[in-house]
Amino acid sequence: MTQLSANDTATHCLISPPGLHELPPPELRLGVLASGNGSNFSAILAAIAAGQLRAEVTVVVYNNPTAKVAERAAAAGIPAVLLDHRAYETRVAMDQAIVAVLRSHRVDWVIMAGWMRRVTQRLIDAFPQKILNIHPSLLPSFPGLAAVEQALTAGVKITGCTVHVVELEVDSGPIIMQAAVPVLPDDSAEKLQARIQIQEHRIFSLAIALAAQQAQKLAQQSESISIR
Ligand code: GAR
């Protein structure tokens, strides 16, 4: 059997679903929620700049004062708003504040790019079917914290990442796209995480475009049904 090396993973990863429809996706106004580094946020900006995603990030909301995503947003000239969860008595109060910021920037899709907070129905109801999350495992396997470590402990040979629509239960909701990443014999959590992130950066913008196309199609279908 041929052993895979770390360099092989870009060619050996599988992405589902395989392609996008020909219909050009609509122009999207994205609000990004992030808690940390923000490499997925930067990857989305790169896809927009490359013309692969017809969208604009109108605001970044972050909950941790030291999150590097704030620097990334500043460098890109995108407003970044700190909503420190410690300042709110309840999760609902925090989500209410998030909704207010997103609305004030006329966001239509909410992109959870490393957002490490549980969401409440308040946020979900404000953007029905329009909140997407990325998670570093092939859901429904290994939801929650430390997904990469969970996969290593379980001894799976393939893990990956998932973009899904957000529902109330953590890391649940309809799956938009996944990429598979092989676990190598000498993997550490750091090495595996780094290879998963390469795939996250590839699929997140594809998944946003696909979800927007699906939503647009559904809207057109329901419009034609109500006209008839
Ligand atoms: C990503 O790997 C993402 O999958 C994970 O946080 C990381 C953020 O990286 N999200 C979760 O675990 C959510 N359950 P980034 O800040 O460099 O984009």
Q: Tags for this entry?
A:
single chain, 228 residues, alpha/beta, Rossmann fold, eight-stranded mixed beta sheet, 7 helices, 8 strands, disordered N terminus, binds glycinamide ribonucleotide
List the helices and strands and how they pair.
Elements: H1 9-12, E1 15-16, E2 28-34, H2 39-49, E3 55-62, H3 69-76, E4 80-82, H4 91-104, E5 109-112, H5 121-126, E6 131-135, H6 147-154, E7 158-165, E8 175-182, H7 189-227
Parallel strand pairs: 2-3, 2-5, 3-4, 5-6
Antiparallel strand pairs: 1-8, 6-7, 7-8
The chain binds glycinamide ribonucleotide.
Notes on the structure:
InterPro entries: Formyl_transf_N, Formyl_transf_N_sf, GART. It comes from Vasconcelosia minhoensis LEGE 07310. This is Phosphoribosylglycinamide formyltransferase. It is a single chain. The protein has 228 residues and is of the alpha/beta class. The protein has one domain: Rossmann fold, CATH 3.40.50. Helices cover 39% and strands 20% of the residues. It is built from seven helices and eight strands. An eight-stranded mixed β-sheet has the order 1-8-7-6-5-2-3-4, sandwiched between helices. The longest helix is centred in the last third of the chain and has 39 residues. The chain is globular, with a radius of gyration of 18 Å.
Strand content: 15-25%
CATH architecture: 3-Layer(aba) Sandwich
Terminal CA distance reads: 59 Å
Rg, rounded, reads 18 Å
Q: Biggest sheet, strands in spatial order?
A: 1-8-7-6-5-2-3-4
Give the structure's gist in a few sentences:
This protein has 228 residues and is α/β, with parallel strands linked by helices.
